[in-house]
Amino acid sequence: MHLKGRTAIVTGASRGIGRAIALKLAQDGANIAFNYLRNDQYAGSLEKEIKALGVPVMAFKADVRDLDQARKVRETVVSELGSLDILINNAGILKDSALVMMTPEDWHAVIDTNLNGTFNMTRAVIMTFMKQKRGDIINIASVSGLYGMARQVNYSSSKGGMIAFAKSLAKEVAGHNIRVNAVAPGFVETDMISHLKEDQLKTALDKIPLGRLGKPEDVANVVSFLLSPDAAYITGQIIQVDGGMGM
Ligand code: NAP
Fold first, then answer.
1. Which of ligand 1's atoms lies nearest the C-alpha of 143?
2. Is 81 contained in some domain?
């Protein structure tokens, strides 16, 4: 229960990794606010699960691409839950194709959600964190942003941007007792990779020394650690959760 009394915003938590992070932080005792884009049913069931854990929870159908909506989420969280201590920038999308085929729409959609969404949510909360001289920000990036991945120029660029964003901001706000880190998952079993065909999954598995895909909980556990007192001296770091894929 190392997060008891703290409040976390987790973006894109109706499904996948965000959902696992929201549940884990709730189990750690945090009050949870989360947003999502369109999946009301999944969001409703997460809300119920978190309530059953006995911690306050708020769900927002709010688009990370919109700074005004991000500000509204922050305002409501602070006024309803009474505090704001943690931001997990997790909402993300993929629109893979070879660059030679990539449309400007697919380039902008991915940058808008993954990178501009990170800017919007962080911009919305940073003053609160600075004034209270306390805060934790974790960007859910990707190994694709560290090493690059064919057919993912848009996605890799957005994730590389989230990594550079975390490092720059970590330097900028360390003096305000705010830590900023990133987690870079490899292949994690969620809807995001459900389009991969069997042979593509096999090729992916061949590159993973631990011999399995990641589970959303593998990522959530590392996020929980980074928010714990044991990680108090860690900032500006990119932690790979990839079964050794990046070695
Ligand atoms: P996912 O299962 O596809 O879930 C994406 C989540 O983001 C959903 O909750 C979705 O809401 C939300 N979302 C999408 N666009 C949004 C927007 N504009 N505003 C607010 N919420 C939005 O994805 P995932 O696999 O859990 O991935 C989570 C993060 O981990 C992403 O940033 C992804 O890039 C990163 N990651 C994933 C993997 C992987 O292998 N899965 C690997 C490395 C990094 P709705 O349900 O309403 O659509």
1. 43
2. yes
Give mean pLDDT, residues 191-208: 94
Distance from the alpha carbon of residue 131 to the mean position of ligand 1, in angstroms: 30
Q: Distance from the CA of 228 to the center of ligand 1, in angstroms?
A: 24
Q: What is the Cα 201 distance to its own chain's centre?
A: 23
Judge whether 246 lies within some domain: no
Ligand 1, residue 113: give the atom nearest the CA: 18
Residue whose Cα lies nearest atom 3 of ligand 1: it is 192
Cβ of 14 closer than 6 Å to ligand 1, yes or no, is yes
CATH number of the domain to which 127 belongs: 3.40.50.720
pLDDT tens column, 106-118: 999 999 999 999 9
Which domain range does residue 82 map to? 7-240
Give the total number of structural domains in the chain.
1
- Closest to 58 measured CA to CA, from 88, 91, 36: 36
Phi, psi of 182 (to 5 degrees): -135, 150
What pTM was computed for the model? 0.99
Q: Within a domain: residue 142?
A: yes
Has residue 63 been placed in a domain? yes
Strand locations in the chain, DSSP E? 7-10, 31-36, 57-61, 86-89, 135-140, 178-185, 238-241
Residue type at 241 in one-letter notation = V
